[in-house]
Amino acid sequence: MMSAPSASGLKTVFQVSGNPKPNVKTARQNRPPPLSLRLSAAERAALEKDAGGVPLGTHIKAKLFKQRVRKKAVVQDAESLARALGLLGQSELFRNLDAIRRGIEAGDLILSADQQEHIASACAAVLLMRNELIKALGLKPE
What we know:
Elements: H1 7-17, H2 27-30, H3 41-51, H4 56-64, H5 78-91, H6 93-106, H7 113-136
Helix pairs in contact: 5-7, 6-7
């Protein structure tokens, strides 16, 4: 029968087999503190107008450090954009083009190489339009 290790023996076992206590600073501890800036309502409104939809922090940094910032395209009529996306989805245009593509690949539909290329281009164009419309609405493509 084995005897239980003493308290000092357990301490040695844990020191050898256990991981040493990590001495790691988190990323937050390494970051400088945020900068706070008080603006009047008029100053803030002017800054937001100048930013044009870009986050204020990004806009201020770009101005201070002479960086270029890509501004997001502003959707003028989100309702029309949503309707266009809905019509594209209801039309099943992409599914029909994809069925034609599958027929060509299976050999059920015989088309010239030029016709096949046009159909492939149409499929790609419809998919691109769909993804751009979804992105314009601030959604994520499936």
